[in-house]
Fold each of these.
Amino acid sequence: MSWVILIIAGIFEIGWAIGLKYTEGFTRLWPTVATVTAMVISLVLLGLAVKTLPVGTAYAVWVGIGTIGTAILGMVLFAEPASMLRLASLGFILLGIAGLKLAHFS
């Protein structure tokens, strides 16, 4: 169950990272409220996950999910560059996340 909680925490991290763009420097009320709410939920869920998962593994997976998701949504929503090097780098992050998860079970 901790892994599911950690994945959900990572999804909320993506939400708040993308939400930062919509807050326009925290000058827009509702995007700011949504972003701060996503931040709190993400951190609370991360805190729950580390009760049973190693903190280094959980944190790295959480950040990795947020990094990959935010980068992909940045490409889709904000027309950020999607070069082969950038996509390959995201693939390496994904491999790192998978490796950490596999190492947890060995």
Amino acid sequence: MGKILSGVCRSILVLLVSVSGHALAGVGDGPRAYQVAPVGSQRLSIMPIHQNSSFHIDGSPSEPSARIKADILAMQYTHILDVGGNTTGLFAVVPYADISAKLLDTKRETGASGVGDLVVGAIFGLTGASAMTPKEFAAYKPGFTAGLLTKLTLPTGRYDEDNLLNIGTNRWAVQLGGAFSWYFGESLTAGNNTSIELTPAVTFYGDNDSPRNADKMEQRPVYTLEANATHDFSSRYWGSIDALYSIGGATETDGVKSQSDTEKFLLGATVGMYLPHGYGLQLNYGKTLKVDSDGYKDHLIRIKLSKSF
């Protein structure tokens, strides 16, 4: 019995909250980002990302407008707690990035590299996400879950006001959103999981008080809606169809409008693997299908390697 329970627990831990924590380069949080998990669970994730886009690595439209090629390596730690009888995931993300960019409508090129802004946040379970021990979780029959998502971006990344583009943003940002999931299956153990997920959110930006050749840059909120349809094909492999819509991010520099809102729609797919000893692997590809005249049609490749313990 002990061996059976141990095996079940290992399968469960593979399904820990993956909470990407940060809409890195505007790619969204990814599928199965906010699944419930046993209290006390922890996870460490490493995410290499490659993207061509017109967005900063924090997901906001670039100012000045540019075609940006970004190679990012992000590390994230997540811990699951019991808060008021509901599951709560706390997380922190630190990205390192190397970017090269060509300014739109010019032949001028620029680049930068360094540590990006630190992101801390939480997903608070509201319904369908009661705090559970691993044994209770093994008997959990999933249905509908809803959570409150909060993220805080701190201006800790590398920033030089003389540069055209930077890794850090030199401002605070707050994201508020919801995480809604519908599960179809008898459990969340490997091989039995099918889900529909919706994650609406809005990100508010503080002012950059040291922009290049100016005194202050303001940016309007960015509104996003991420949708994922996921399915376990076997006890080892799963996949999903992913979509991300975003609009907003108009900028104003010293009281003068410098960029209009940017709108885009991205469609992608993910292949995931359940690996032994609490490891998990995801490979995601996405491509922009619609973007307004101020944006650049982009694509991304993201790998996520996670260890649950």
